[in-house]
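Database export, one record per block. Field names are fixed; values are copied verbatim from the stored entry.
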Amino acid sequence: MLDITSWVRVHVEALIAEQHDMGVCDAIEEIERPPLPHNITQQNAELPTKTRPDLGKCQIRRKSSVMTAPRVPNVAGIEPTLPAPAHTADPPAANGSADGPADPQPGAASEAPPGSGTESARDAAPEMSPVDQLVAVQDRLAGWISDLSTLHDLTEQLARTRTLEDALQEMLRAGASLVGAQRGLVVLAPSDGLGPETTIGLGLGQADIGHIETIPRRALSYARILDGLPEPGAADDASTGTPDARTEIAEPDIPGEKDLDPRLREVAARLGYAASYAVPLAADPIGRIGAAVWLYDEPAEPGERQRHLVGLYRAHACEHLARLLELHRSTRAAATLREELLPGRLPRVPGVRLAVRHSTGPRGGGDWFDALPLPDGALGLAVGSVTGSGPSAVAAMGRLRASLRAYAVMEGEDPVAVLSDLELLLRLTEPARSATALFAFTEPPPGAPGGPPAPAMPAGITDPFPRKLVLAGAGHCPPLIVGDLRTEFVETSLSAPLGMLACWEAPSVEISPARGETLLLYSDGLLHRTGEAMDRAFARLHAAAAGIPRADRHDPEAVVDHIVRTMLPQGLDDPASEEDVVLLAAHFDE
């Protein structure tokens, strides 16, 4: 066995494993090696000597080139905060002495153009000692592995984002760490014109972004990228005769550049940045979706290695942004459709004040509500739910609500007849679907505006004819009446949902809400979101209604806000829940 001194002995297995994992084994072949001696004696004779304090002058022995590969250092992942761009700095020379030139930049392409540092290293490789060549290989592989590890960590963090805004923020943060910038902004402006259009900043407030937007558009680097404008002074292409539009725009010294717009220089001085680097964001099938620009506090410009790394990261980030953009558009389209199928505003009816809170689950559900003025000053209130989720449930909800409105106008004074007609329509047109519904009809009291005239009454009787409210339910949750003297559920008749029986009919219930009381209609999603059993959820709703402060009981907006806060501490728009929520309040002043 060869007597290899401990200071040059290395771990070969670690290097081979890293090379196979990162796919860079062929990189060693790019460096020419000198021919090896035919025997160990000649090999040891040609090795350099080194003086050690403990051994004196000794000869450095080595194994074959495979067995003397140095250990690849461990590469740690990046920090979650903005790290110093150490991995993007220009690498030091492979040999600090005059024995050989500097090693090419790690992460650069293996085939470099003539005159590059790679060609010089190849020409000078035969003149380097074997140990120096191995050190150069080590530095080069370590740089590539560091770049690959950094890109892997950054893209992994980007893949964890689930919303378009979060992805844009992560892309800005990662890009700033790659190019060594401190701040930046991204402008989302899809070229297909379907939106959304927004601007998000990193280390910039809304006021700072507003200052940047006051710069003339022709002077903004990201605006020239979005508009496809050429750089000032760019020559026309000889073959096509079209301007040479730059895909990357660097402004390394904004205060010292004389040809820049004065307003740009003024805003840069106000915000405290002295250089910028802008790149386009594009991905199929949308094409150009926006542009990103990073800002430096001091005059600076990213190097070739930094441009290469941010280009690799940007290619992956744009694909992810394009997918989230399509998802955002489809989600917004479904939400807009559902909003258009529900009342855009609540009607104004004399003697009644209305308030509503509703939220749709992430997949879109079939919960709905309605409040419609009827002939002779009457009012109809309805809530319901259609089985299923997604676009089909939303469409079915729209059809059901439109049908109920038509039946309410024709025979609204009889809620049982309204729901019977609705059940027959659902059974004939959509036999595979079921739904729940609750409809309430109320007339204004005699003598009230819009109501019948009040007959003459003896003196001293001020309110002989209270308001009458008739309601019927089909498998829906019972409403809740809340006042100063009572908080109780309205005992509606127990009935199956619409579409579950061959013929639906259940008796109606008549109540007389007093002046100052509020009727609460809601969907079962309000109960399901609590995560408790139904009996406990009903008890929790009753306790929440009973605990409404006395000063808020005459304001329906305050009533629904109190119920939502008490029942749903996580908020109405909870992305973790798939349940729709509807809460409709009718406060009776007369």
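Remark 1: Residues 304-341 form the longest helix (38 residues).
Remark 2: The radius of gyration is 37 Å.
End of record.
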